[in-house]
Amino acid sequence: GLTRFASAILRIPFLRRDALVIQFFTNTDEFGHVLKVGNLDMEAEDIDVEDELGSTPWPEVQQTYAAFDDFYAQVARDEERYRTQITSLEKIARYKQAIGDELNVYSDTMRLINAPRESVSGSRKFHVQAASKRTLDSNLNELSMSFSDASLLEKAHGEVQKTISAEYLRRVYDVVISMKLMMDRMRRMEKRKDIQRVCERNDANRKAMAQLNGESPVPDSDRSSTDRLERLLREDAAELQLLNHEQRCIEARFYLELARYKCYESFLQTHYHGYIEEQIKHHTMTLNAWKQALSTADDLPTDPLGFIS
Q1: Which one of 89, 117, 141, 210 is at 20 to 30 Å from 301 when CA atoms are compared?
Q2: DSSP letters spanning 52-100
Q3: Taking the CA of residue 173 as centre, how many other CA atoms within 13 Å lie in the half-sphere pointing to its CB?
Q4: Residues 6+ apart with CB under 8 A from 45
């Protein structure tokens, strides 16, 4: 479970290069302590946006990111859907195992190999069996074997449900969880509020600068204020440039990973086709087993008088 989940995370480039993920797989200290000391407020992944996007127009990236919450809700629904399907398959597998066990118990009751071979009363007539009785005993043993075969088929099908069909869905589920984890990280790293805060502060500083520059000549007492405002404006411009770049990286990465996530849906054809094909195969084999059992059941003697020796 943990290995499969970790492998799914490492298959996604964004998460694989995430500093927190790298720390999780490389840090030898207790990871809970690493989280407590606080490494959650990290900078966004620095990528070459133009190189990553290629010919994709930037407005399309922005439009996609604007629907972030809608896509997050979709991923959450996918998580619930696949988790429910996996749970259902695991229940079906358990039911199949239980049916197989009960069929095996049922088949044991038809075996007559443990029937008493000696007369308690000492009567010689005890050992004399009618022909119909001998035929019945022989056919019941064969019928028991047919039921036992059906039992094994049910158990085998339950194992297939649990190990193959459910495993395919777990792979898809791991992708969904990884996508949700990535989007959670993006929400924490989102820079739009920081950009708005710096812009508002920058506007206030520009207005203050305009008021000072409006005084002619500028008094010596205000020169220090002018210098301070100019320094703040330069710092704001540098910070704003960094924040805008980080936000562009986040939006570009989300656009690319969302496209990758959508591509994984093509894997569902493999899963559902294989699942239905396995159902058909199982029911065909089961039908053949029951047909064989029916043939044996049809050979059971039906004449009541034939059981009287």
Answers
A1: 117
A2: HHTT--HHHHHHHHHTHHHHHHHHHHHHHHHHHHHHHHHHHHHHHHHHH
A3: 19
A4: 14, 17, 18, 249, 253
Between CA 260 and CA 169 the distance in angstroms is: 18
Question: Is the pTM of the predicted complex or chain greater than 0.85?
Answer: no
Tokens 């749970």 label which residue?
A: 87
170-174 long-range contacts (CB < 8 A, ≥24 apart) are: 170/4, 170/86, 171/4, 171/8, 171/267, 172/82, 172/264, 172/267, 172/268, 172/271, 173/79, 173/82, 173/83, 173/86, 174/4, 174/5, 174/7, 174/8
CB 137 within 8 A of CB 300: no
Q: Which residues, in sequence order, are CB contacts of 205 under 8 Å at separation 6+?
A: 229, 232, 233, 236
Q: Burial level of 201, CB count in 10 A (0-12/13-18/19+)?
A: middle
